[in-house]
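re: ur question from yesterday

yeah so i grabbed the chain u mentioned. its 126 aa long if i counted rite. heres the sequnce exactly as i have it in my notes:
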Amino acid sequence: MKLPGADIIERNTAARFVNRDVFHAHNCSEVSGEVKLEPRTKRNGCHAIKVYPNPFQQYITVDLGGMSGGAVSMCIYDVTGKLIKTVTWKNKTYGQIDISGMHSGVYVLKVDGDGLHETIRLMKIN
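ran it thru and got these structure tokens back, copy pasting raw so excuse formatting
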């Protein structure tokens, strides 16, 4: 499976997806080695977390599907593994995140906390 922007990932950062669950970064300033992506959190066989629109321009809407009753951390990384933004929600299951200051490209949103573990690939366009 070829990911959108995968040629950009390999050309600019010497990073690539080994398979759909393992990301390999080589000689990157923030990440080195392989990173296993967390399995998606499911409820009744469906993915519990929804992020839209994707691709996005200024904001993403995150819907945790009512699964969180506590603190949830959402981290956005660029393709080199550099942390771009961290957002923490407490007792919140739905909202928008402003990411208008980011450049166009592929990003990864990692959601962790209160039984939620999901990694979602995002694409920013201008």
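noticed a couple things. The longest helix spans residues 6-13. also The domain at 38-124 is CATH 2.60.40.3080 (Immunoglobulin-like).
anyway ttyl
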